[in-house]
Amino acid sequence: MSYNIESYCQTPDFRVKSRPDQEEFGVERSALKTSEVFRDMFLCCDQGYDFVANRDVQDITEVLELDESAATLRVLLQLLHSPPPPPSLCPSSHQARSMGKPISPYNDSRIPYPLLPDMLRLVDKYALSEPLRRSLHSHLFASASAHPLEVYAFATTNGLGDIAAEASAYLLHPPLATYTSNQIAVIPSTAAYHALVRLHSLRVSRLKEILLAEEIFPFGYGACLTHQEDTTRTWNERRMVLATQIEAATDLAAEMTVLLQQLKLCTTCHKACTAAIEMLAYKCNRIPRTIDYLPREHQGN
User: How far apart are CA 261 and CA 265, in angstroms?
Assistant: First the structure.
């Protein structure tokens, strides 16, 4: 579902005008009153108001001029007349997320990200309803997978910690060093950038530590009497090469599965390799993937 700014008012009884563009829009007072700003304005100025719902919009003389562009007014009036519902949840995502996989909990239907910052600005400026704010926040959350850097920058700027954390999960790849200075410049503070640097560093360090500690025949358990030496050498060679290539988003279990094909002719070696890879996956899934799980940073003098 894409969110279209389109015709939204079937029974206008008031007019709103864009001062910069001199464009007028027919609106419903009842919709405007869902904004605290407009509701308070009407309380002050509604003396003697003659209800005009049955008149043609061209005959309505009451006009409110706002210092907003016509495009921005269309967005505002759409939010007032047809507040967007939250995006729908994707039931299948729960299990994947519980296993540490970065997947959005929402289906693909959401308001396009470029519309959301201005919508949320209008929510604050005109004191729109709290349910609408929560709905837009959920759409912002849903946009993190497709626009992680932009969402992270917006969320950290506006104190939306849970949304910033969600976006950080999708910023594990590519490495931060691959971004241009102009791209990184959207992040609002050194603290926000440093949190990403710490997350990447922690993951690389922990992944390498886990990989180099994981043996294919731990304490000789499940060892193949015929191939133990060769299989151990094959496992060690693969993990030593992989240890030099680890990045924050590296999937160690997936990278080590190439050994299963090499060991398929020996049931015992294949079983031990499968168990070792599964243990790698389990341990790696426990490493933080988002900034909200970073350990507290010690403050130096």
Answer: 8
Report d(CA 9, CA 23) in Å as an integer.
16
CB 151 within 8 A of CB 113: yes
Per-residue b/e over 209-219, b at no fewer than 16 CB within 10 Å? ebbeebbbbee
Residues 275, 277, 282: CA angle, nearest 5 degrees? 95
CA distance 263 to 265: 6
Task: Report the residue count for the chain.
Answer: 301
CA gap 245, 241 in Å, rounded: 7
What pTM does this model have?
Answer: 0.85
CA distance 217 to 272: 7
Residue 180, CA distances (Å) to 184, 188, 290 in order: 6, 15, 22
pLDDT in tens, 231-277: 999 999 999 999 999 999 999 999 999 999 999 999 999 999 999 99
Structural contact between residues 28 and 140, judged by C-beta atoms closer than 8 angstroms? no
Residue with tokens 């090469």: 241
Q: Which amino acid is at 26?
A: G
